[in-house]
Amino acid sequence: MADLVLIGTAKARPFRNVWMLEELQVPYTLRPEIPRSPEVLAMNRSGKVPILKTSASHCLKHPETMLPESTAALQHGNFIMTESAAINTYLADAFRGHVPELVPPAGSQLRGRYEELVSCIITELDAQGLWIHRKHEAMKQFFGHIPEDGERPGDSRVVDALDAAVQHAQQHFCNTVNILLAQLREVGDYLLGNFSAADILLVHCLDWAGVIKWLPSTSIESELQPVLEQYLERCHKRDAYQRAVAQRKAKL
């Protein structure tokens, strides 16, 4: 078995990590698991994926990347971490020296820009955009709405409020994409000039938006639409992306 085990399905956010691992060309095992399965809950009490699991011996080669000793996973002899963006940054640091280098060195100005982009993509595009749709449109039967005094879940005003929240999230998503595309137009082919883990996050969010019909959109500024199309085409042609897509198409 490979030293690295990624737990989760490539049909969701773990796709970001599959793509990253394919770019790094390091051996890994993908163990398909859906959220809140018994195995997932045993390693992450939130029940969420992805989860990255690697042997203790691997972590000792890179002690600066280990979690605090109080972390329960380390007490069991394994290093386990969650959160797709954090996993990708860890992988880049843990395998620094491999070609290509997908995250700039710590302490550099370019690393600061990378961290800025990651924070923007995760908070503005994912959490405040796509995840609002996921909760209140695609999975509203699970998340629903917490009624205020006098409200009932089926009240039209509740439905209207949720619809308005999703519409606002969609507009916020497009506004943020416009900002990132304008920056991309100035920088070059990729967000940092060269391809990086930030591009993996952004492309995954853009692909997700395409699936839920948020893109293409008239809210994307007309002069930026070619920038978006060419960027996606450029990233989708990468061999590692294609290999990750093949993993996504595989059955659980």
UniProtKB/TrEMBL annotation:
Superkingdom, taxonomy of origin: Eukaryota
Entry-linked CDD domains: GST_N_GTT1_like (cd03046)
PROSITE patterns: GST_NTER
Residues covered by the GST N-terminal domain: 1-99
PANTHER family: GLUTATHIONE S-TRANSFERASE GSTA, GLUTATHIONE S-TRANSFERASE-RELATED
Family of the protein in this entry: Belongs to the GST superfamily.
Protein's name in the database: Glutathione S-transferase 3
